[in-house]
């Protein structure tokens, strides 16, 4: 096996003041670990939709919770809460230091906040960076094997599909 | 095996009596009581207690891994074969652990068996550190002093005073950097895992220090003075001989490293395995009429460089293909790896039951004598691997 990056839906910094929560999952809904979630109108957990609900508290699923054939609240899901440093999946380019909102294409994923396209009350959190200490081999000449280090390397843009660390803000 | 041993007769073995000889601390099988000696009762040794206690000590010290201690104490051939069979049949093929009993409809009591060996923990050797001189620093700071030599002698005429010259010292200051790796083991993860999660985590984490140091040394070597190389992987048209001679490139680097005013010593050469492959298959190295295979290994590590006795070869995946890193690691070390303190520790959260473990390492790779290092570049066209 090669080196494994930290999967989405992992708390990457401990904060003893913050406890995770466990909330009931909506009927006919499957929540995947690492998805950004929120409560629907009936207060059951769903992956945050591509329509970007404004003024809602976001969570990040820390485990899979498949309630596809269950009723409202048949199962529950452990969640990271605002304040946690947690990994999620990017759905487009995110530049360092930028805030993130829910993707317009894939529920539960995040993209970079753009003032012209999004509203401030849709913001989910702040992009911190990608995991460091990863050994990769370039596919281009001279096919060099390198290691990433957050201390020596400038913060890099996240690309679609990357697992990124965010501070969950709201 | 820890039972009290006396000189009294014990239970029989294959129709014989068992006695301990206090002279050599071995158990002997005899036909009777050895009143005057073991020869008169046809005694032969079966078990050696000195080796037994050595084996116990090895096991207590945690130096498991070899299999010598398993059966060394069994002097008797029959006993020895039994233990050897046990080792080959049971231990070396890996024990199977029964993880749990599972009960499902129409599957009354399936036993879940898990092979004890966990795959995927291993990693490659990181040999890049061998291009640097390892210098231990008890704290974080170290200074390296360098002297600039004065120039040479001059002829003096009668009554002429000689010109005054003096040495000039300069100092470089280095400070080791801090690197860390922390991993968490949740209580639940520990409780449901059939494997030893802590042991596995430590094994995975243990080579990360060497990994980072190796990459750091190679990154420093990448800043050495460049020397344009000639292609080792091309052949003269319509012939079987190589276009360029690798010894000329390495020789030029050695002349510069050991040359006038410097006096270093080219002791190690680092390159990618595929660069080494082109070196070995160059006809100036292997000979034009060679019809046998080159003695080659892609294994990462350090060995002698074939063709140039006395120079060590360091092969590492992370050296750029086509680059040949020529360094001194002894007399005038080119690159130093300052190794500061290392420590490991853990923190237990009483409430959640989680254990956090961390490894802290202080080190710094730095070029401390740039005059004794050369980077020969572009000796081959990189190959995708």
Secondary-structure element sequence of chain A?
Answer: EEEEEEEEEEEEEE
**Which fold does the CATH topology of the largest domain in chain B refer to?**
phage-related protein like fold
Rounded to the nearest angstrom, the radius of gyration of chain B is 32 Å
CATH class of the largest domain in chain B: Alpha Beta
* Percent range of helical residues of chain B: 10-25%
Biggest β-sheet of chain B, characterized? 6 strands, mixed
Spatial arrangement of strands, main beta sheet of chain A: 1-7-5-3-4
Number of domains of chain B: 2
Number of E strands of chain A: 14
Radius of gyration of chain A: 17 Å
Q: Could you say which overall geometry of chain B the principal axes of the C-alpha atoms support?
A: extended
- Beta-strand proportion of chain B: 25-35%
Please provide the ordered H/E string of secondary-structure elements of chain B: EEEEHHHEEEEEEHHHEHEHHEEEEEE
Distance between the termini of chain B: 54 Å
Would you summarize the structure shown here?
Chain A has 170 residues and is mainly beta. Chain A has strands spanning 21-24, 29-31, 36-39, 45-47, 59-61, 65-67, 76-80, 85-89, 99-102, 110-112, 125-130, 135-137, 145-147, 163-168. A 5-stranded antiparallel sheet of chain A has the order 1-7-5-3-4, with no helix packed on it. In chain A, strands 8-14-11-9-10 form a 5-stranded antiparallel sheet, with no helix packed on it. Chain A has a two-stranded antiparallel sheet with strand order 2-6.
Could you characterize the architecture of this molecule?
The complex is a heterodimer of chains A (170) and B (385). With 170 residues, chain A is mainly beta. Chain A has one domain. Helices cover 0% and strands 32% of the residues of chain A. Chain A has no helices and 14 strands. Chain A has strands at residues 21-24, 29-31, 36-39, 45-47, 59-61, 65-67, 76-80, 85-89, 99-102, 110-112, 125-130, 135-137, 145-147, 163-168. Chain A has a five-stranded antiparallel beta sheet, with no helix packed on it. A five-stranded antiparallel beta sheet of chain A has the order 8-14-11-9-10, with no helix packed on it. In chain A, a hairpin with a 7-residue loop joins β9 and β10. The radius of gyration of chain A is 17 Å and the shape is globular. The termini of chain A are far apart. Chain B has 385 residues and is of the alpha+beta class. Chain B has two domains: 10-91, no CATH class; 127-377, phage-related protein like fold (Alpha-Beta Complex), CATH 3.90.1690.10. Chain B is built from nine helices and 18 strands. Chain B has a six-stranded mixed beta sheet with strand order 11-18-15-12-14-13. A four-stranded antiparallel beta sheet of chain B has the order 1-2-3-4. In chain B, β13 and β14 form a beta hairpin. The longest helix of chain B has 15 residues, at 77-91. Chain B is extended. Mean pLDDT of chain B is 83; it is low at 1-6. The chains are: A mainly beta (170), B alpha+beta (385).
